[in-house]
Write a structure and sequence with these properties.
The complex is a heterotrimer of chains A (575), B (236) and C (204).
Chain A: H1 3-16, H2 21-26, H3 31-61, H4 75-111, H5 119-138, H6 167-197, H7 210-242, H8 255-289, H9 296-309, H10 328-353, H11 362-385, H12 387-393, H13 397-427, H14 433-459, H15 473-476, H16 479-494, H17 497-509
Chain B: H1 12-43, H2 60-93, E1 100-107, E2 110-115, E3 128-131, E4 133-137, E5 141-148, E6 153-157, E7 162-166, E8 172-177, E9 182-188, E10 200-206, H3 208-218, E11 232-234
Parallel strand pairs in B: 1-5, 4-10
Antiparallel strand pairs in B: 1-2, 2-3, 3-11, 5-8, 6-7, 6-9, 9-10
Chain C: H1 24-53, H2 58-61, H3 66-92, H4 97-128, H5 137-166, H6 173-203
Helix pairs in contact in C: 1-6, 3-4, 3-6, 4-5, 5-6
The chains are: A mainly alpha (575), B alpha+beta (236), C mainly alpha (204).
Chain lengths: 575, 236, 204
C-alpha cells in the first residue's frame, strides 16, 4: 500500500489498539522511539568509551601499575584502548547522541510533522547503527583484540595485518565504521527531506528553528564528505585482505593517500558533530534568557558557510605529514576563513545573553558551560592552524587537550543540555532539578581538571598515544600533570552517576510534565508530554518566528509559533 | 613561557615568537569573551522588575556588535598566519647548504643514523652508522634525509622545535642548526605500534673541539673502527 | 481537520519562502545519489592521480578485455534505454501500461543480469591469468571500481525486480507507477558511473 495509506493505517491502529511491544519499542518506525533507541545505544557506548578513558588515564598516571578492574595492560592493549576510545566517542557516541537523538526527536516535532519523511528507512538506520556498534564491541573479544592503529587508522600500520595484533579486529573496525556511515547517510537523507518537505503550513524557511537548520546542514555536510572515505575504507580492507597495495609503498601505493581521504571526511566530521551541538545551545539560550536569539539569519548563513568551507580545510591536519610544504599556505588561508562563521556563532550566543532575564536551570547551565569551555577549545585551535606552531605542537598533548575542549562541550555539555531540556517532552516527566545542577557543576569542574593540565603537558612537548610518558627524560618532571588529569578523570566518570540515577528515577517517579514546562515557543511544546504517536492531532498553522520572546507590549514573555500577533496583546481592558 | 623546553635551534625563536604572538592575541580575546559571558550572566540574571529586552540583531546597527568583532578576529588571524608563514618558510621551504648530511632511517622501533663519512658519499667504506644517537656539530647546518622502512613515524626534537613525519616510500628532508652543545631528546611522535613509546634517540650536539675528536675517532678514510659504545656499528 | 503532512504530499511552503516543489522520494534519491557521486568520484580521482603518478600503467592496462568491456557498455546503455521506456510508459499511463511497463522493466533486469554474468566471466578469465586484486595497483583499482559498480548494478536489479513482481498485482500497479521514476534515476546513475569507468579503465 502507499506510504500515505500506511501512515493513516498506523494512525488508526495506534488509536484502536495498543501496538504489540515489539512493534512499539523494538521495530518501531516512530521517530520518537527511534530517538530513544539512539539514546540508549549512545549512552551505553559512552559508558564503554568512558571506561577506555579510565584505563588509558590510569596507565598514564601510574605506568604499568595494576589498573583497578582491569589489571596491568600491555603497550599493545594501550594502543587498542586509545584507538577504540576515539572511534567509540566520535562515531558511536557523538554522532548518535547529537544527530540520532535530537535530530530524530526534534525535527518532525519542531516543523509540525507527524513523523519523518521515511519512517521505515529511519528504522533501518537505527538498526544498521546497532549492528555496527555490536560488531565494534565484538571486536574487543576476538583473538588479537580490537583495532590498534589509532582512530585515524593511518596506513601502513592499519593496512598490513602483520603490524598490530588486531588482525581480525582492524577488519571489524572497518566494517563497523562502514555500517555507521550507512546508518547516518540514511538518517541524513531523512532529516534533509523531512526538513525541506514536511514543514507545516506557514513555516517558511525563515521560521524554521535553528536546531532544525543545524541538523539539516550537518546532514548535508556528512553526505558530501563521507563518500571518499567509504572508498578509502574499501581500499583499506582490500589492502589488508588481499594485499591490494593502495596504501602500501612496496606495491606502489601511498600512505598519504589514506591521510587525505581520511581527513577530507575527518575535518567535516567534527563540524557534523559541532553543528547540532550548537543548534541545541541556540535553542536553549533564547528560552532561558527570555530573549530572541541574536542574529538568526546570520546564524543560518554561518551554518551554510561553515559547511562549504569545511570541505577545503582538511590538510591543516597534515602540515608536517610529508605532503608538499607549499600546500600549508592555501590550507592555512581556508582555515582562517572558517574561523569566521564560528566566531559569529559564539558572539551571537554571547549577544543573546545581553539584556536577557536569565534563568539558570540545568539546561541553561549546561549550555553556558558548553559555550565557555568550547571557547577555550576554539582559541587553542589557532595554535594548531598556524603551520609554524603546528610543527611543534602536532602530535602532542596540546592537540588532545584542544580537541577534547571542543568535542566534549559540543557532545556532552550541549548533549546534556538538550537531554535535560527535552526530557519532559520525551518522557512526560521532569528530571530532578537539584541533582541536575549537581551533575552540571561537578562535571564542569572535573572536565577542566582533566584537560587543562594536558595543554601544559603538550606545550612541554609530551607526545600523545604513548604508553608511558615517564619513559621520556624530558617529561619525567611533569608526570604529576598526568596524575592530576587522571584523578579528575575518575571524578568526571563518577559524577555521571547522579545523572544516570536521576535519569532512570525520573522516568517513573519524576514530577509529571505538562506540555510546556519551559514556556518555549517552538512547536514541540504545543503537544502533550510525551506526544501521541502522530504528534499533532491537527496540522499546526505556523504564524510566527520561533524566537519571539519578551515582545514589547505582549501579554506574556513568550509566543508560540502557532499564535498570531493579535492573541498576544493584552486582553481588552488591561491585564 | 617556561613550559616550553629550552630552545637550542636557530629557528626555535621564530616558532616561539609565533607561539607567544598567538598566545597574547587569543589570550585577550579569550578573557574578553569569557568575561562578557560571566558579566552578562550575572548582570542579566532574572531579577524582579527587570524584563528582557527584545533585541534580535535584525538590523546592521545591532549586527555590527558581532560582525565587527568577527572581522577583527579574522584580521588578527591573518596577521598571525603571515608571521607564522615566515617561520614556516624558514623551516620547511628553505634548505640552506648543510655542513653535514645524515641519513635517518626509522624502523620499528629504532632510529638509525647513517653518516657518509669524509668522502661525503653513502655506501662507501668510510660510512659510519649509529643507532639512537645523532651526533652533530654545534652552529652548523645539518640536513637529515629521512626514510621509513615500514610505517609512518615522526622525527621530533622538542628542543629544536623540529618535527617531520617520516613516510615509507619516500625520502623526506629536514634541516636544523643547533646553537648549544648538549644532549637532547628525539622522539617518535606518530603511532607506529607496540614499542612506539620506546622509539627514542638522543641528539648529541658537540662543540667544535668535541666534534673534531668524535670525527677523528669514528670517521676514517678506510673501514670505521667499532666505537666503544655498544650502539655504534660498522657499515659493510 | 487535516492529518499531519504525510510522506507523499508535496507541501506548499507559505509566506513567499517557497522553493520548487519536489516530491520527497525524488529529493531523497537525489541526496543519496549525491553521496554516491562522492564515493565513486573519490575512487576515480584516486585512480587517476595514482595512474598519472605511476606513469600510466600501460603495460598492466594492456591486459584488460576491452571488447568484453565494450559489449557490457552496450548492454548497460540498452538497459538504460529500456528503463527509460518503462518510466515513460508509467508516466503516460496509457492503455496497457502495466504490461508495457513490465516488459520494458523485464528487459532491463535481463540486461542487468547479462552485464553481471559477463562481468563474472571476465573476472574468472582474469583470475585464471593471475590478474587478481593483489596483482598490482592497477588491478587493485580495476577490481575495486568495477566490483563496487557491479554491487550497485546488483542492487539495482534487486530493486527493479521487486517493482516487476509488484506490477503483476493490479492493486499495486499505481504504487509501481509512482516509484519507477526513482528506480529509473538510480539505474541511470549506475549507467553514468559505467560511462566514466569504461574509458578510464578499459580504453586508456
Amino acid at each position: 500500500m502507499s506510504q500515505a495509506a500506511a501512515q493513516r493505517k498506523a494512525l488508526q491502529v495506534a488509536h484502536l489498539e495498543e501496538l504489540s511491544f515489539i512493534r512499539k519499542y523494538i521495530f518501531s518506525t516512530d521517530h520518537k522511539t527511534i530517538a530513544k533507541q539512539y539514546l540508549g545505544i549512545s549512552l551505553f557506548m559512552a559508558i564503554v568509551g568512558g571506561f577506555t578513558a579510565y584505563a588509558i588515564r590510569w596507565q598514564l598516571a601510574w605506568p604499568s601499575a595494576r589498573i583497578p578492574g582491569v589489571g596491568t595492560i600491555t603497550p599493545d592493549a594501550y594502543n587498542t584502548l586509545v584507538t577504540m576510545h576515539g572511534t567509540i566517542m566520535v562515531f558511536f557516541v557523538a554522532m548518535p547522541f547529537l544527530l540520532g537523538v535530537f535530530g530524530n526527536f526534534c525535527i518532525p516535532l519542531m516543523i509540525g510533522a507527524g513523523d519523518m519523511a521515511f519512517p521505515r528507512l529511519n528504522m533501518l538506520s537505527v538498526w544498521t547503527f546497532l549492528v555496527g556498534s555490536l560488531i565494534l564491541l565484538a571486536s574487543f573479544f576476538v583473538p588479537g583484540g580490537a583495532a590498534a592503529a589509532g582512530w585515524t587508522g593511518y596506513a601502513p600500520l592499519s593496512a598490513r595485518p602483520d603490524l598490530t595484533p588486531a588482525v581480525l579486529g582492524q577488519d571489524m573496525w572497518i566494517v563497523a565504521l562502514a555500517l555507521e556511515f550507512s546508518s547516518f547517510l540514511m538518517g541524513g537523507v531523512n532529516f534533509i527531506t523531512t526538513a525541506l518537505n514536511m514543514r507545516a503550513p506557514g513555516m517558511g524557511l525563515w521560521r524554521v528553528p535553528l536546531l532544525v537548520w543545524y541538523e539539516a546542514t550537518a546532514s548535508v555536510l556528512f553526505l558530501l564528505s563521507v563518500g571518499p572515505l567509504i572508498g578509502g575504507a574499501v581500499m583499506l580492507l582490500l589492502d589488508r585482505l588481499v594485499g591490494a597495495g593502495f596504501f602500501l609503498p612496496a606495491k606502489g601505493g601511498d600512505p598519504l593517500l589514506w591521510e587525505h581521504l581520511f581527513w577530507f571526511f575527518g575535518h567535516p566530521e567534527v563540524y557534523v558533530v559541532a553543528l547540532p551541538g550548537f543548534g541545541i545551545m541556540l535553542e536553549i539560550l533564547p528560552v532561558f534568557s527570555r530573549k530572541p536569539i541574536f542574529a538568526y539569519r546570520a546564524l543560518v548563513y554561518c551554518a551554510l558557510t561553515a559547511t562549504g568551507l569545511s570541505l577545503i580545510v582538511w590538510a591543516h591536519h597534515m602540515f608536517i605529514s610529508g605532503m608538499d610544504p607549499r600546500l600549508a599556505t592555501p590550507f592555512t588561508v581556508t582555515t582562517i576563513l572558517i574561523s569566521v562563521p564560528f566566531a559569529v556563532i559564539v558572539f551571537a550566543m554571547i549577544a543573546t545573553l545581553w539584556g536577557g532575564s536569565i534563568r539558570f536551570d540545568t539546561p541553561m547551565l549546561f549550555a553556558l558551560g558548553g559555550l565557555t569551555s568550547f571557547l577555550l577549545g576554539g582559541v587553542t585551535g589557532i595554535f594548531l592552524g598556524s603551520a609554524a606552531t603546528d610543527i611543534y605542537l602536532h602530535g602532542t598533548y596540546f592537540v588532545v587537550a584542544h580537541f577534547h575542549y571542543t568535542l566534549f562541550p559540543v557532545t556532552f555539555f550541549a548533549g546534556f543540555a538538550g537531554l535535560y531540556y527535552w526530557y519532559p517532552k520525551m518522557f512526560g516527566r521532569l528530571m530532578n532539578e537539584t541533582w541536575g545542577k549537581v551533575h552540571f557543576w561537578l562535571t564542569m569542574l572535573a572536565f577542566q581538571g582533566v584537560f587543562m593540565p594536558l595543554f601544559f603537558s603538550g606545550i612541554a612537548g609530551t607526545p600523545r598515544r604513548v604508553f608511558a610518558p615517564n619513559e621520556y627524560p624530558l617529561f619525567k618532571a611533569i608526570q604529576p600533570l598526568q596524575v592530576h588529569a587522571t584523578i579528575a578523570t575518575v571524578t568526571l566518570l563518577l559524577v555521571q552517576i547522579p545523572f544516570v540515577v536521576n535519569f532512570f528515577w525520573s522516568l517513573r517517579r519524576g514530577k509529571r510534565a505538562e506540555a510546556n514546562p519551559w514556556l518555549a515557543n517552538t512547536l514541540e511544546w504545543c503537544v502533550p508530554s510525551p506526544p501521541p504517536h502522530a504528534n499533532f492531532a491537527h496540522t499546526p498553522r505556523v504564524r510566527r518566528w520561533p524566537y519571539e520572546y519578551s515582545v514589547p507590549g505582549a501579554r506574556l514573555d513568550w509566543s508560540p509559533q502557532t499564535e498570531s500577533g493579535d492573541t498576544m496583546l493584552p486582553a481588552a481592558g488591561g491585564q | 613561557m617556561h613550559w616550553l623546553p629550552s630552545d637550542v635551534s636557530t629557528f626555535g625563536p621564530s616558532v616561539d615568537h609565533v607561539f607567544r604572538l598567538i598566545l597574547y592575541i587569543v589570550g585577550v580575546w579569550f578573557i574578553a569573551a569569557e568575561g562578557a559571558i560571566i558579566l552578562f550572566a550575572f548582570r542579566f540574571r532574572r531579577r524582579p522588575g527587570h524584563a528582557a529586552v527584545h533585541v534580535a540583531g535584525e538590523n546592521m546597527r545591532q549586527l555590527a556588535w558581532i560582525l565587527v568583532p568577527a572581522l577583527v578576529v579574522v584580521f588578527l588571524d591573518f596577521g598571525i598566519d603571515i608571521a607564522a608563514g615566515h617561520a614556516w618558510e624558514e623551516i620547511k621551504l628553505e634548505s640552506p647548504k648543510p655542513a653535514l648530511n645524515v641519513s635517518v632511517t626509522a624502523e620499528r622501533f629504532a632510529w638509525i643514523f647513517d653518516y657518509p663519512g669524509p668522502d661525503g658519499k653513502y655506501g662507501t667504506p668510510d660510512d659510519y652508522w649509529s643507532m639512537a644517537k645523532l651526533y652533530v656539530p654545534v652552529n652548523q647546518v645539518v640536513r637529515v634525509d629521512m626514510r621509513s622502512m615500514d610505517v609512518i613515524h615522526s622525527f621530533a626534537v622538542p628542543n629544536l622545535r623540529l618535527r617531520q613525519d617520516v613516510v615509507p616510500g619516500r625520502t623526506i628532508s629536514a634541516w636544523f642548526e643547533a646553537t648549544k652543545p648538549g644532549t637532547y631528546e628525539i622522539e617518535c611522535t606518530e603511532l607506529c605500534g607496540s614499542e612506539h613509546y620506546r622509539m627514542q634517540a638522543s641528539l648529541v650536539v658537540l662543540s667544535d673541539s668535541e666534534y673534531a675528536r668524535w670525527q677523528h675517532e669514528h670517521w676514517s678514510s678506510i673501514a670505521s673502527k667499532p666505537s666503544s659504545s655498544a650502539s655504534a656499528g660498522v657499515k659493510q | 481537520m487535516e492529518a499531519a503532512p504525510s510522506i507523499e504530499t508535496v507541501v506548499q511552503f507559505g509566506d513567499g519562502d517557497s522553493i520548487r516543489e519536489v516530491p520527497a522520494p525524488r529529493l531523497a534519491v537525489w541526496l543519496f545519489l549525491t553521496s554516491e557521486i562522492m564515493v565513486f568520484g573519490g575512487l576515480i580521482s584516486c585512480f587517476i592521480l595514482l595512474r598519472i603518478a605511476h606513469g600510466g600503467w600501460d603495460a598492466e592496462a594492456a591486459h584488460v578485455h576491452w571488447r568484453i568491456g565494450a559489449f557490457n557498455t552496450l548492454v548497460l546503455l540498452t538497459s538504460s534505454l529500456t528503463m527509460a521506456l518503462a518510466c515513460t510508459s508509467a508516466k503516460e499511463g496509457k492503455e496497457g501500461m502495466a504490461r508495457r511497463l513490465r516488459t520494458y522493466l523485464g528487459f532491463t533486469i535481463l540486461l542487468g543480469l547479462t552485464f553481471l554474468g559477463v562481468k563474472a566471466c571476465e573476472y574468472s578469465l582474469e583470475f585464471a591469468k593471475g590478474l587478481t586484486p593483489g596483482a598490482g595497483l592497477f588491478w587493485a583499482f580495476y577490481y575495486t571500481l568495477t566490483g563496487l559498480h557491479s554491487l550497485h548494478v546488483l542492487a539495482g536489479i534487486i530493486l527493479n525486480s521487486t517493482l516487476w513482481i509488484a506490477a503483476a498485482r493490479a492493486d499495486l500497479v499505481p504504487v509501481v507507477q509512482r516509484r519507477i521514476e526513482y528506480a529509473g534515476l538510480y539505474w541511470h546513475f549506475v549507467d553514468v558511473v559505467w560511462i566514466f569507468l569504461f574509458p578510464l579503465v578499459y580504453l586508456t
